[in-house]
TrEMBL record:
Positions of region (A): 1-325
Chief place of localization: cytoplasm
Protein name: Chaperone protein HtpG
Subunit structure: Homodimer.
Family: Belongs to the heat shock protein 90 family.
Organism this protein belongs to: Acidiphilium iwatense
Gene3D superfamilies: 3.30.230.80, 3.40.50.11260, Heat shock protein 90, C-terminal domain (1.20.120.790), Histidine kinase-like ATPase, C-terminal domain (3.30.565.10)
Domain of life of the source: Bacteria
Pfam family name, one: HATPase_c_3
Chain ranges of the Histidine kinase/HSP90-like ATPase domain: 27-182
NCBIfam families: PRK05218.1
Gene that this polypeptide is encoded by: htpG
Places the protein is found: Cytoplasm
Function: Molecular chaperone. Has ATPase activity.
Length: 535
C-alpha cells in the first residue's frame, strides 16, 4: 500500500491561512458557505463530465449532507461530487492555484487590520476558511471513476498529510474538528440559520442532520424561473451575492423571459463594484448556462468579453439536457441567445445612461472594460461608443461623444483626442495648445485600451476622430523667418535620427517646442507603451 506522505504548504498558503484565521474572526460563519459552495461545484462538475462519460453519472439522490457529532466535536460536510485523487488533494488543497485567492492574500496582507473584515466581502476565501473554526480538518475523498480513496489531514499550520483511505462511493467528506471557542457551530440551529441566509439558491439539495434524520436545508428554487412580481429586491440581491461571491448590491438587475422562436429565461446582474482584476486575468464571460434548470457550464461565453463583468444565469428549453461540449460550440441556438443577451444589456445601459448621475458609478467601475467593446465588437461599435464616457478639456465632468459633438465649434470638423498614461498630465500637454487656442475641445484618454479603440472607431456621428498630435492641417502655416529656419536646422542636426523632422508650427501658443508623432506612425504615448511591453 502507499505510504503516508507529509508535505509543507506552499508559502502562499501559509500566509493566507495565517491571515484568514487571525483577521476574519467576526466573519467566521462564512466557512460553511465556502465548503458548501465547493461541494456544490464538485457535484456540478461531475454532472457535466458525466455528459461525455456515463461511468461518472451522479447517483439519483445526489446531495450535500451536513452532520454534527457533538461528542466528537466534529462537523462533517459530505458530497457526491467529482471527488479528488491524491494528487488533486495535494495540488488543490496544498497550493493556491487560483489567482483570485492569491490576489486576496496580497490585498489582505496590505490592508489595515480594521479594514480586513470588510475586505472579505470582496473575495471568496475558499477551503482554508475551514481553519477559522477547526483546529484540524480532514478530507476523505474518492475521485469518480477511481477505486482508491485518500485522506488529507492538516492542522492548518505547517503542512498536511495524505494517506490511503476507504470510501464506498465517489465524492468527498470534509470533517472539521471544531475549536474550543467555536462551540456555537456544533448547534444544528446555528448552521441552519447560516444556510438559510445564502444557500437557498444552490440548486443541489442540501440536507442537515437533526435527531438522526437528514432534512432539507435549502429551497433550491430556480429564482430566474419565478415571475418578477413574486421576487423581492432582497431575493435578487441575495441570489446575486451567491452567484458571484459578491457582497454588495447589484447596480442593475435584468430579468426577462424570451418566448416564441427562442425560449429562455435570463437573470443578469451588473455588479455595483468591479470584482478585483476584472480587467486582467480572465477576459471571458462566465454567465451560467442552465438547461431546464440544471446547471450545465459557465464556460459557454454567453456574453462577449467586454461584458465579462455581467454575472447571471441563462436557462433554456431549447437544448437537450445531455448537450455535449462540441454541441455547445456549434449550435446556432446559443449564437442566437448570445445576440439577444448583448442587445438586452445594451438597451438597459442606454436607458440608464440617460441619467448621468446614476450612470457615473457604472462608468467608474466598468468604463475601461466597456471601451474594449469599441475595439472588439464589430456589430455594436457605435452603440458602445455612445455609452462610453470620457474626460475632456471642456470641464471636469465626464462627457459622452454625443455631448462633445453638440459642443463642437461651427468651424470644427473633427473630434480630437489625446492619449497618455495620466489624464491629469494630459491636461498640460503642449499638444493641446493650438486646439485650446481655437476653443476646440479635446478628449483626454488615459486607459490602456484608449491607445487602441479610436483608430478602430475612426468616425462618430460622421465626424473623424483625430489625434491631437496629428491635427496639423487646421493650423495656419507658421511664420517663417531666417532665424527660425536656422534654429530648426541646428536642432535637427543636434537630434540626429532621433527625430524625422524639426518644423516650425503655429500650433504652440505657450510652449517653445513639442514632440509630435509623424503621419502614419502610431501616436507617441502608444509607442512608449509598446516599447515598454517589449514589442
Ligand atoms: P475555489 O473553490 O474558488 O477553487 P477553494 O479554496 O474553495 O477555491 O477550493 C480549492 C479547490 O479544491 C477547488 O477548486 C476544487 O478543485 C478543490 N475542492 C475543494 N473542495 C472540494 C470538494 N468538496 N470536492 C472536490 N473538489 C474540491
Ligand atoms: Mg471554493
Amino acid at each position: 500500500t502507499e505510504p503516508e506522505t507529509t508535505r509543507p504548504f506552499d508559502a502562499e498558503v501559509g500566509r493566507l491561512l495565517d491571515l484568514v484565521v487571525h483577521s476574519l474572526y467576526s466573519e467566521r460563519e462564512i466557512f460553511l458557505r465556502e465548503l458548501v459552495a465547493n461541494a456544490a461545484d464538485a457535484i456540478d462538475r461531475r454532472r457535466f463530465l458525466a455528459l461525455s462519460d456515463e461511468s461518472l453519472a451522479l447517483p439519483e439522490d445526489a446531495a450535500i449532507r451536513i452532520s454534527i457529532d457533538k461528542g466528537a466535536r466534529t462537523i462533517t460536510i459530505t458530497d457526491d461530487g467529482i471527488g479528488m485523487t491524491a494528487e488533486d488533494l495535494a495540488s488543490h488543497l496544498g497550493t493556491i492555484a487560483r489567482s483570485g485567492t492569491r490576489a486576496f492574500a496580497e490585498t489582505l496582507s496590505q490592508a489595515k487590520e480594521a479594514d480586513r473584515p470588510s475586505l472579505i466581502g470582496q473575495f471568496g476565501v475558499g477551503f482554508y476558511s475551514a481553519f477559522m473554526v477547526a483546529d484540524e480538518v480532514e478530507v476523505i475523498s474518492r475521485r469518480a471513476g477511481a477505486e482508491a480513496a485518500h485522506r488529507w489531514v492538516s492542522d492548518g499550520r505547517g503542512g498536511y498529510r495524505i494517506r490511503p483511505a476507504t470510501r464506498e462511493t465517489a465524492g468527498s467528506d470534509v470533517i472539521l474538528h471544531v475549536k474550543s471557542d467555536a462551540d456555537e457551530y456544533l448547534e444544528p440551529v446555528r448552521l441552519e440559520t447560516i444556510l438559510r441566509k445564502w444557500a437557498d439558491h444552490i440548486s443541489v439539495p442540501i440536507q442537515l442532520e437533526r435527531d438522526g434524520k437528514f432534512l432539507a436545508a435549502n429551497e433550491g428554487t430556480a429564482l430566474w424561473r419565478k415571475r418578477k412580481s413574486d421576487i423581492s429586491e432582497a431575493d435578487y440581491a441575495e441570489f446575486y451575492r451567491h452567484l458571484g461571491h459578491m457582497f454588495d448590491e447589484p447596480w442593475a438587475t435584468i430579468h426577462w423571459t424570451a418566448e416564441g422562436a427562442l425560449e429562455f429565461s435570463a437573470l443578469l446582474f451588473i455588479p455595483g463594484h468591479a470584482p478585483f482584476a476584472v480587467t486582467e486575468d480572465d477576459r471571458e464571460s462566465h454567465v451560467r448556462l442552465h438547461v431546464r434548470r440544471m446547471f450545465i457550464t459557465d464556460d459557454a461565453r454567453l456574453l462577449p468579453g467586454w461584458l465579462r463583468f455581467v454575472a447571471g444565469v441563462v436557462d433554456t428549453e431549447d437544448l437537450p439536457l445531455n448537450v455535449s461540449r462540441e454541441m455547445l460550440q456549434a449550435t446556432p441556438i446559443l449564437a442566437r441567445i448570445r445576440k439577444a443577451l448583448v442587445n438586452r444589456v445594451l438597451t438597459e445601459l442606454k436607458t440608464r445612461a440617460k441619467d448621468e448621475d446614476a450612470y457615473r458609478p457604472f462608468i467608474e467601475q466598468f468604463g475601461a472594460v466597456l471601451k474594449e467593446g469599441i475595439y472588439d465588437d464589430n456589430d455594436h461599435r457605435a452603440d458602445i461608443a455612445s455609452l462610453a464616457r470620457f474626460r475632456s478639456t471642456a470641464n471636469d465632468a465626464l462627457t459622452s461623444l454625443d455631448a462633445y459633438v453638440a459642443r463642437m465649434k461651427p468651424e470644427q470638423t473633427d473630434i480630437y483626442y489625446l492619449t497618455g498614461e495620466d489624464a491629469e498630465r494630459l491636461k498640460t500637454s503642449p499638444q493641446l495648445e493650438g486646439l485650446r487656442a481655437k476653443g476646440f475641445e479635446v478628449l483626454l484618454l488615459a486607459d490602456q485600451i484608449d491607445f487602441f479603440w479610436p483608430e478602430r472607431l475612426a468616425t462618430y456621428a460622421d465626424k473623424k476622430l483625430v489625434h491631437a498630435g496629428a491635427a496639423r492641417d487646421i493650423f495656419s502655416p507658421a511664420e517663417t523667418s531666417d532665424a527660425l529656419a536656422v534654429l530648426a536646422k541646428s536642432l535637427q542636426a543636434a537630434l540626429g535620427d532621433q527625430v524625422s523632422e524639426v518644423r516650425a508650427s503655429s500650433r504652440l501658443t505657450d510652449s517653445p517646442a513639442a514632440l509630435a508623432a509623424g503621419g502614419a506612425q502610431a501616436d507617441l504615448a502608444l509607442q512608449r507603451l509598446m516599447r515598454r511591453a517589449g514589442r
